[in-house]
Amino acid sequence: MADAVMRRNTTQAIVATSLLAIWLVLAAFPFFWTLWGSFKVEADFFSRQSWWNAISGPATMLQTGGHFTLDGYRGAWIQREFWRAALNTGIVTVCVTTISLVFGTLGGYALSRSTRRYTFWILIAALVFRAMPHITLVAGYLLPFFKLNIWGVLPTAIVVLVAINQPFTIWMLHSFFMSIPKDLDESAMVDGCTRFQAFRWVVIPVMWPGVITTGLFSFLLSYNDFAVTAMLLNQDNQTMVPKINSFLGTVQTEGTIMYAVAAVVSATVPLFMLVMFFQRQIVSGLTAGAVKG
Amino acid sequence: MRHRDFAAFIAPSLIAMFLFIVLPVGSIMVQSLFVEHDQVLVTTKNCGPFGCKEETRVDTQATEKLRREEPLGKFNGLGTYFNRAHLAIAQVGQIFSGNHGFGDIVSRLYDLPFYKALSFTLVYTFLVTPLCMVSGFLVALGVNAIPRMIKGPVIFLSLLPYIITPLLGSLILFWMINTDGVIGATLQLIFNDPELSLKASPVLTWVTLIVYGVWHMTPFAFVVFYAGLQTLPRDTIESAMIDGASRWERIRNVVIPHLLPLATFVALILMMDNFRVFEPIVGFSAAANATSLSFAIYNDLNGQTDQLFGSASATSVLTMIGVIILLLPVLVRTWRDFKGRAR
Questions:
Q1: Angle at which helices B256-275 and B202-230 cross, to 10°
Q2: What's the DSSP call for residue B252?
Q3: Domain residues of chain B, as ranges?
Q4: Looking at the domain assignment, is residue A32 inside a domain?
Q5: Could you give phi then psi for residue B180, rounded to 5 degrees?
Q6: Count of domains forming chain A
Q7: pLDDT of residue A120 exceeding 60
Q8: Which CATH number does the domain housing residue A188 bear?
Q9: Cβ of B298 and A231 within 8 Å?
Q10: At CA A234, angle to CA A228 and CA A239, rounded to 5?
Q11: Nearest by Cα to B211 from B146, B143, B135
Q12: Which of A39, B69, B314, B331 has the fewest CB neighbours in a 10 Å radius?
């Protein structure tokens, strides 16, 4: 009987492991495939004859004389000025993350320390706002922004993204602040701190893990945004994601689709790095709402 | 906390949300009642040697001027909501008064743009959400069983589809399933059909988008369920094992009940995120065969010559009503909990 149990356990283990292996291939293979292919020419990456061409790259050898080519990257970054979009993305994400965190820590702290009825309503309103598709709000921005003549510039997009991120940010920070005992700031206030001093000098120093985690998600939300930045920024101020989308319209006809592939890979690399360095925080952030809230 | 302190702390956040979420919602509601101006037409009498002709042409200058002076357009009441591009009351009435059975109703409803978008959005939301939860749960069980050493790299790889920008993720997959991409070409080879294209048929496009959705959101469900597995009480599992429960019985009777509260949270977040499905339709260039509510708004706003603000706003209001309906069970439950706690 022990034998039968053992055998069943091994089969189960094999099934579980192979399922996991399939998932891992599905999850990761597209990225590595595209990364590798971005150093080839179009005839190889989109080869009609055989997918093996994308790996070995005979056309790349023929056309450029090397196994790998930087043509796609050169075309995207220099010729099509992708660096401008990368710079804009940098400005937008840094500003949005910083402002979101400042507003969010203040608001989240207040919500976690007040026991009154209105905190409930604010949190519920935030939940509803969080559920609203961003593009529905964009429809409401355009006419007023045209009228005020603030359409198309980076500060507008930054302010809008901060506001759109607020519901999420205060929910997450609220749940992190809830895990910090109230006695901490109350004893600081007994010692003569004002509410703000207690917040700034006593609570925030122990909140860093929560702040960093929330910051990562604010960063991701602004970095990954397409709806807002595509509709609110003009051609010169576009960030990376809408820029890549506008690449698509032209590259297909020009036969320079590898520019778009290179741009996509370039925009993916920072996200890769982010997961690599902050994996623990991202995992804890994803579960924060579930476990604590 | 005193009211004054509370107000001071929450002010920046509330003001931002009021200005850029509450006001725009109001602005959408107002805009949806208006419709773009018609072009100003002038009729002139042209008299030539062969008699007089009446000629109608567009007065571009006057049209421009009118549009500049009243950017909202002219008042249309609820007209936009009921026209063919939205709720299509007249057309729906026709369909229901004379049709050839259920299949006919469905196919004719699907020809109306709003119902086309709505049906895809709902199918996507209610298929992707449970599928993600199942696959996320399976991945979580798998990762939980592997040696500690390789857990880190495995979680790293598993997170990638979730962390990727939706538009870029769908482009990466789109290039692979393209007829000359690796998956597309291989599928042609397997089915021995050089014409096979995932883009061509509506059904295959829907399947592709749903597969993308599951791929993109599974890591989220996985991470939450994996965290839940870490808090599983060891002694319960061990006593179940001593009682002779098989692996499947342990999962069914111990693990799943333990994860149930997390599952509601995951379902809520997944539904909210899936309901706004939009970028994959752009990335997969799928608009011909599948549109969503968000995409319909984007499409109206993105018109190169004239942006249809009235139409986009009406769709936005309808979408928000959809979101509220979707959230209603959660809102009611939270409200009951809150009342219960207050008492």
A1: 140
A2: I
A3: 115-290
A4: no
A5: -105, 15
A6: 3
A7: yes
A8: 1.10.3720.10
A9: yes
A10: 60
A11: B135
A12: B69
Identify all chain B residues contacting A27, using CB atoms and an 8 Å cutoff. Answer: 157-158, 160-161, 215, 218-219
At residue A25, the pLDDT reads 94
Residue-wise pLDDT for A197-248, tens only, equals 999 999 999 999 899 999 999 999 999 999 999 999 998 899 999 999 988 8
Least reliable range by pLDDT among A14-23, B62-71, B128-137, B269-278: B62-71
H-type alpha helices, A65-191? 71-74, 82-113, 117-131, 134-148, 154-178, 182-190
Domain extent at residue A85 = 75-292
Q: How much is the pLDDT for A1?
A: 45
Q: Does A290 touch chain B (CB under 8 A)?
A: yes
Q: Which two tokens stand for residue A141?
A: 């921005």
Provide the phi-psi class of B74: left if phi over 0, else alpha when psi is between -120 and 50, else beta.
beta
| 8 Å CB contact of B228 and A114 | no
**Cβ contact B278–A27 (<8 Å):** no
What pLDDT does residue A293 have?
Answer: 39
Asked whether the beta carbons of B232 and B254 are under 8 A apart, the reply is yes
Neighboring chain B residues of A34 at a CB cutoff of 8 Å: 172, 175-176
Residues 134-153 on A with a CB inside 8 Å of B are 134-144, 146-147
- Measured between CA atoms, the residue of chain B closest to residue A223 is B165
One domain for residues A95 and A3:
no
**A27 and chain B in contact, CB less than 8 A:** yes
Phi, psi dihedral angles at B179 (to 5 degrees): -60, -30
Given a cut of 80, whether residue A64 has pLDDT beyond it is yes
What per-residue string of b and e applies to B82-110 under the rule 16 or more CB within 10 Å gives b? ebebbbbeebbeebeeeeeeeeeeeebbe
The CATH fold assigned to B115-290 is MetI-like fold (1.10.3720)
Largest Cα span, chain A? 80
**Per-residue pLDDT tens over the stretch B102-154:** 888 888 888 899 999 999 999 999 999 999 999 999 999 999 888 888 999 99
